[in-house]
Amino acid sequence: MGAKTKILFLCTGNSCRSQMAEGWAKKLRGEQIDAWSAGIEKHGMNQRAMQVMAEAGVDISGQRSKLIEELPDLDFDYVITVCDHAHESCPLFPGHAKVIHRGFDDPPRLAAEAASEEEALEHYRRVRDEIRYFVATLPCCLQSASKD
């Protein structure tokens, strides 16, 4: 088997969407993908994100919120921005990394307007499931991806 594809999932605070994407990539594509996540800023791990991922059988509680600068010096194959702010602020990466943007709604922002905790969690679950589908289709998506 060849080397794993190195993917960085990038979002604003590395607290929710990019953490979910990293968790799904490790769970669903761990044999093919070496997954990392980081943020333009560092907001800490989102408790609701950890809760809904655990409900789906993915434990991201051992992951930590980090800045791009805190990552080891890796030559990523792909950098996938999962929010518009990260896409607009995406730094240049040395090497041959292809940047792909696939924005997802921001669960904390949506949950702020929720009438109940259950309604708030539904926003997280929907985004969790959208990210799962995206990650599950990554091998085909990466084959046809082009640099922005």
At the fold tier of CATH, the topology name is Rossmann fold
Q: Structural class from helices and strands?
A: alpha/beta
The tally of structural domains comes to 1
CATH architecture: 3-Layer(aba) Sandwich
The level 1 CATH classification is Alpha Beta
Overall body shape: globular
Question: Level of helix content?
Answer: 25-40%
Ends: how far apart? 29 Å
Mean pLDDT across every amino acid position: 89
State the CATH superfamily name: Response regulator
Q: N-to-C SSE series?
A: EHEHEHEHHH
Number of contiguous helices: 6
Estimated share of beta-strand residues? 5-15%
Which residues sit in consecutive blocks of at least 5 with pLDDT less than 50? 144-148
Largest sheet: 4 strands, parallel
